[in-house]
Every structure is written in C-alpha cells, then in structure tokens.
C-alpha cells in the first residue's frame, strides 16, 4: 500500500504538469518518426533529458555489435548509422533503493493513405479527450508518461533514492534491436517498466513474432497461360493461402496453451506488404510478400520457421509457376521469442498497489497477441520486466489516438511506482 | 510481281549495309528507352535521320492536344514534355507514286529482374543468329529495317518517286498516343507500314486492349480477423479471380467470332502489377492492381468496360472488406479498339508480292492477341495499315531477341515494297 500522503503530493505534481505533458506529447507526435527517420526526434529527446539534468548517452545502432546477441533480429534495407538511441541516467549519490529502467520506443509504423485520416497523421489533432496521430497511442504517450512521472517527483520536492535510466529506443516495431542495444551497452537494473498502451493492465504474456519475405520469381511457363493464373503474383497468392491454412492448424493446437488457450486464434498471420510485376501488359515475373506470423511462448523460432518453410514448399510443389521456379523465404525483421512475465514478482506487486491506489480497482492482466520489448530484459537477463501503460486506440490504423485523462492517471501510477520501487528522499 | 532486276539491286544494297544495320540496331538497343525515358534515343534518331537528308519534325506529346481525338488513351503518372516524337520526311520533288508512312515505336517495356537475363538487357549481346536485349525484338529491329530499307534504295542508286515519312514514336506499349500525335499533327499517306516483329506474316486482325487500375482501400473491419483474409491485399485477389472468371466467359463467347473464333482464349487478362500495404505488422489498408484485358474487334470499349465494372462490383459485394470499402476502377493507359485489316487492299497485294519474291513463299496472315499502332491509321483514317516485320522472341520476357538473318530478308522485302509502292527513279 503506497504512502497516501506521498501519492497526494505526486497527484498534485502530475496535475500541475499535465498541460505541459500534453504539449510535450503533441511535439513528439509531430516528429514523423517512421522507421529510419527517428534521429531528429531522438536528438530533441536527448536535449530534453539533458535540460532536466539527466546524464545523456546517445549512440547509434551502427556503434554496437549486435548480431551475435540473443534476441537479435536480422535487418535488410536500413541504415543503422541513423538509428539513434538515447539513455538518460539519473544517478543517486548514495543509492539505497532499487534501480529502474524505464523505456519507451519512439519509432512508429507507416501511416497508410493519409486521406483516410480525419486529420493529417503528424499534426497531433485533439478530438475531445483524445490526442490523435500516428504514434500518439503506440507509444509516444507512454514516453511522455515516463518523462513526466519523473518530473512530478522533482516537482513534488523529492528525488529518487536509486539509479534510474530513462531510455528512448527505436526498432521496436520491426526488430527490437534498439532495446537489445541498451543491454549490449551494459544497462541493467532491478526492474524494467515499459509503458506501452495497455490501458492500465499488466501484460502477463506476449506471443513471439517472426517476419519473413516470400520471394517468387522466374520465367512464366507460357504467356498463353497468363490468364489462367500462371504468374508470380497469382502464385504468391497460393503461398499466402497456404500459410493461412498453416496458421489455422497452429491456432487449433493453441487451444491447449497454458497462457493463450482462452484467446481465440492467438496466432495472427498477416501478409502486410505485397509488390509484384512491372507492367500491366507483361506477365509478372516476380512478386514479394512481407509477412508477419506469431508464435506461442515455448515454441522456438526454429520450430516456427520450419513450419512455415514446410507449408510453403508443399504449396510450391503443386503450383504451375513455382514448381519450375521455387520460392525463397528470407527472415528479415522480427525474430522475436514470446515471453511470459511469471506472476509473483516484487516489482509487479508494487506496481499493482500503485495502480489500485490511483484507480481504485485491481490491476488486471492481459495476454498480448503482439510483441513488445520486455522480452529482452525478462527472457535473456532475468529482470522483472513490466509492460503497463495508458489507453490508446487504432494502433497501426487510422486516427490512432491517446486518451488524455487515462494518460494523466497512468503518469501518476508510474510516478507512484518509481517512488515506491526506487524510494524517494526530500530533495536538497 | 516485282521487277527482279530492281530486287537484285536492292538485295545487294541491303546485304552491303547489313553490318552497319546490325551496329545501328545494337546502338538502339543500348538506349534504355523504357516509358518516359525515350528522349535521348529520339534525339539520336532525329540526328540520324537529319544526317541522311530527311527533313526532321521533332516535337513532344505536350505540344499536341490529344484528349479529344478518337483513339486517345488517358494517362496518369507520366511527363509528356519528355515524350519526344520524330518524323523524318523525304519529299519527292515531283511526286508521281503513292505516298507512305513507315512507322516504328522505340519505347520498350520494363526488363523485370535483370538477374534473370543471360546478359544485361541493354547491352545488345549477340548469341549466334540472335541479337538480344529489351526491345531488340519489339521493335527496335523493325526500326532498323525501316531506316536501312530506305538507305538501301539510295545505295542502289535510286530515289523514291513519292513522299515518305519515317516516324519513330513512343507510347506504343501503353497508350498509342505517340502514333495518335502524328495524325493530330497532320501526317497522312496512301499506306502505312509498321514493321512489328510478325515473323514475315501480315496482321489480319488484332484485339483491342484496355488497361485499368483496381484500387482497394479502406479500414479493416477488425484486426482480430486479419488472418482470415479481411484486408485490402486479400480482397484485391478476390477481384482478380472475379475478372479471371469474367474473362473465361468472354472467351467462351469468342468461339463464335469471325476473326478470332479459331484462336483458343484470344482475350487475355493479365494482372500485371500489384502493390499493397506498407508494413508487415499492419493490416494492409490499400492495394492497387494494374491490369490489362483484351476485347474483340467489334466490341466497343464502353461494352468492355461495363463488363469489368459489373464483375468487380459483384465480387466486392460479397467480400468482408470491400462490402464496407467499395473498390475503384481507373481506366489508365490503353483504351484501344481492336482492328481488322480488311483483305483485298492494293497495299497488301504489293507487300505480299514482295514477300513472295524475297522468301519464295506466300505471306501468311496472323491474328494478334496483342494490340499495335495500325488501328489509328486504319480505323480512324481509313488508310491501309500493314503490320508486317521481322522475327523476334521473348517479347516482354527475358532474353528478348531479334533474329538477324530474318531481319536482313525483311529489310529487303520492305525496300522492295517501298520501291513498288512509291515507285523509284534513278537518283541524280
């Protein structure tokens, strides 16, 4: 049970700072920080943290040797000299409490057709209680909560009694290599909090995710058969259908899973990007499909890859085009294990108490059919890694939004957690 | 029956020039004159014709008001200020014979993946009797035949007795607006010859062709249904399958066609380019497919469009994604009528006689399931428009090639045709 007087001080401090926090969030949303374009935002963030008195470590993914670390995902088509990572450290002079990493990602997924947004996606439009924009929900609002929860502690006249690292990373939406790099650089703590938009729930388990590219290309058997479907684009479609059937089989088996058995179809397969052919009047000789498929915690990446490879090979054998031109699979992007936050950790107990103190309700748990960065800390480094944050909507969709009233409450819950976990002292 | 002594003079002249013609063809093939990039080739061609004494008219499609002319095809995504057209005129001082337009296109279709070529596609590699490269067959060899047939007449000490226009145009592979522009500019003649790679046959009839873009986009119903196919890419596939079925129905009816009844499945539908989605982990919210479909001579474009529109609308109604997000069809590119060269024209008789004199066999006729530029002259301006030319292979495919021995014979047949149609005099 948190100290209620302390909580009141923090509540006032969060409330006093919330207008500024909302402006900070709007500023964050205005950076079009899609993959590969996060550097200007990260530069701004480094200056923000430095101005607040953090010791800032700014580096790029090109500075770090990642390829042999557990959890690394291979990457094509990107420039890691521009993948800037930021770690702000607030070191306690005489640390007495428990240390904490509080981390958020600043990369966002593409907007899709901007005409389908009510307001342009990087303008941070406010609609009632919602602040909208690509990344507003996932997870720039969480980043604002990290920064302003710690600001609130200072505003309340307090300072943490243990080391705190505020980290803003990239690559969460495609590999997780940003989070991985902070571990490679040596950052460790007694707990990790990642305020993804969980709407005040704790993420008990998340699936793993793999990305792969199907590449079909070759010489059409005969142009006269073009209209019967013997071309690279139509053959790629056969592969998609085959992986859909494979996914159905996996979801059948998933009904027995201890963590995901109650979730209908927890394994999502998504053919997300398709490109093929060059000319309306030429039979397409190539097609590539960027795909995403989930896997349950406990399934190895190797097993999951093998399943996809087998079903693709079988579909290729019976297709007129691919029998002569076998497709290739490239594992490019996420090769991410699933992760279960084992119940019973002290960090979770402290967070649950803060949540209850702020919201007056129990902190519920969720199973996520998407991946997040906690796996790196929890799975490969045995830290308690908590994924808990504000309410968002339409993540990866149109009119993505952050729910501002919830954001204020979650910011308070996080401030409370920092105070209880790290301990606080009256600032001198 | 051509004058055999004249034919011998021309045969020697063509043979004497054939090494140079082969170099000329190789030079042509080395221009990467894909759509929108033809201007440097056309500049070179204008200088080649000027050096030979032609009066050159060079202009761009941006100079001509085309949109209201019969046969015009609408265009997106291109810059007509760079679409250079070239007409070289050789005017007879005192014309006595019949005038002639001899036309070839210099635009080529995209190469597809260059790794799938035996030699890079713009290097004009020679493999035995074949000169290879994108456009070598279709139809840069025909362009070389035009120029060198006329050169041969001069080499033989002769000059045409009527006006001749040598035209190199663009846009044949996507709209035909290059050919259309020469008519808008006023060029007319008593006959037209287009030496497409017909392997020494005359094209009796060609189908029409329409291009259209299917655009599917919108908001997925629910992300949880992503793997069951409710997304823009999978819905676009439903449209493709629907147009394939529609095409099957059209081909059933085509068995009764007077010109194409004997050709199996003369109407080809090709989904040639597909693009959709932005991110492997986001449900695709948009997909576009660039398609090509044929139509028989006598079917109006309006009828053909209506058939496609109906089948797309029906497929959309029963699809989970498109029922809420109706697809759009854009008619972009070819809106080309079919054309029949009615048998019995004097121009065809003269050409057939020359073909027989050169090859010793009858000139056979073909029905083409692809379109060519003759329709503009024949359909809208009642000129005899002959499509007759050399032998090529793998047009629009890999390792496209021109068969050099046939090219030499066809060049002679064309020289013979020019001499017989226009008449020749001893040069002064």
Describe the 3D structure.
Two copies of one chain form a homodimer. By secondary structure, chain A is α+β, with helices and mostly antiparallel strands. In chain A, 35% of the residues lie in helices and 22% in strands. Chain A is built from nine helices and 20 strands. Chain A has a six-stranded mixed sheet with strand order 1-2-7-3-8-17, with helices on both faces. In chain A, a hairpin with a 2-residue loop joins strand 4 and strand 5. In chain A, helix 5 packs across helix 6. The longest helix of chain A is centred in the N-terminal third of the chain and has 27 residues. Chain A is elongated, with a radius of gyration of 23 Å. Chain A starts with a helix and ends with a strand. At the A-B interface, strand 10, helix 5, strand 11 and strand 12 of A face strand 10, helix 5, strand 11 and strand 12 of B. Strand 11 of chain A pairs antiparallel with strand 11 of chain B.
Number of helical segments with 4 or more residues of chain A: 9
Tally the beta strands of chain A. 20
The strand line-up of the biggest sheet of chain A is 1-2-7-3-8-17
Shape of chain A, please?
elongated
Uncertain parts of chain A: none
Beta strand % of chain A? 15-25%
Q: Based on helices, strands and strand pairing, what is the structural class of chain A?
A: alpha+beta
- Give the biggest sheet of chain A: 6 strands, mixed
Secondary structure: helix percent of chain A:
25-40%
**Oligomer state of the chains in this structure:** homodimer
Largest interface: A-B, 59 and 59 residues
Report the end-to-end length of chain A measured between terminal Cα atoms: 26 Å
Mean pLDDT of chain A, nearest integer?
A: 95
- Give Rg of chain A in angstroms: 23 Å
* Secondary-structure element series of chain A: HHEEEEEHEEHEEEHEEHEEEHEHEEEHE
């Amino acid at each position: 049970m948190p100290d209620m007087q302390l909580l009141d001080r923090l509540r006032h401090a969060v409330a006093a700072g919330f207008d500024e926090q909302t402006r900070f969030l709007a500023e964050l949303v205005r950076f079009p920080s899609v993959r590969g374009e996060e550097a200007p935002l990260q530069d701004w963030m480094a200056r923000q943290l430095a101005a607040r008195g953090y010791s800032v470590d700014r580096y790029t993914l090109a500075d770090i040797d990642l390829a042999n670390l557990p959890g690394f995902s291979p990457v094509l088509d990107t420039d890691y000299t521009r993948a800037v990572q930021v770690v702000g450290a607030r070191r306690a002079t005489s640390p007495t409490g428990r240390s904490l990493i509080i981390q958020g990602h600043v990369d966002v997924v593409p907007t899709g057709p901007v005409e389908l947004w009510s307001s342009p996606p990087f303008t941070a439009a406010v609609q009632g209680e919602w602040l909208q924009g690509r990344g507003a929900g996932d997870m720039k609002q969480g980043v604002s909560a990290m920064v302003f929860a710690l600001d609130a502690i200072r505003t309340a006249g307090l300072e943490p009694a243990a080391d705190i690292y505020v980290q803003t990373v990239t690559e969460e939406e495609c590999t997780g290599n940003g989070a991985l790099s902070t571990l490679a650089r040596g950052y460790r703590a007694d707990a990790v909090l990642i305020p993804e938009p969980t709407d005040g729930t704790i993420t008990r388990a998340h699936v793993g995710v793999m990305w792969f590219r199907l590449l079909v290309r070759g010489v059409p058997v005969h142009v006269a058969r073009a209209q019967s479907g013997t071309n690279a684009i139509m053959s790629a479609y056969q592969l998609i259908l085959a992986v859909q059937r494979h996914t159905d089989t996996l979801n059948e088996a998933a009904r027995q899973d201890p963590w995901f058995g109650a979730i209908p179809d927890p394994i999502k397969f998504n053919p997300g990007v398709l490109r093929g052919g060059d000319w309306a009047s030429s039979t397409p000789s190539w097609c590539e499909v960027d795909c995403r498929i989930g896997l349950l915690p406990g399934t190895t990446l190797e097993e999951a890859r093998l399943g996809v490879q087998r079903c693709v090979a079988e579909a290729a054998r019976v297709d007129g085009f691919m029998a002569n031109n076998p497709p290739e699979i490239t594992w490019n992007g996420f090769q991410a294990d699933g992760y279960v936050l084992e119940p019973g950790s002290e960090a979770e107990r402290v967070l649950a108490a803060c949540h209850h103190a702020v919201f007056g309700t129990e902190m519920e748990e969720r199973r996520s059919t998407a991946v997040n960065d906690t796996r790196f800390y929890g799975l490969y480094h045995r830290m308690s890694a908590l994924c808990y944050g504000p309410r968002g909507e339409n993540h990866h969709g149109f009119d993505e939004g952050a729910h501002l009233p919830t954001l204020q409450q979650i910011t308070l819950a996080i401030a409370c957690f920092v105070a209880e976990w790290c301990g606080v002292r009256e600032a001198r």
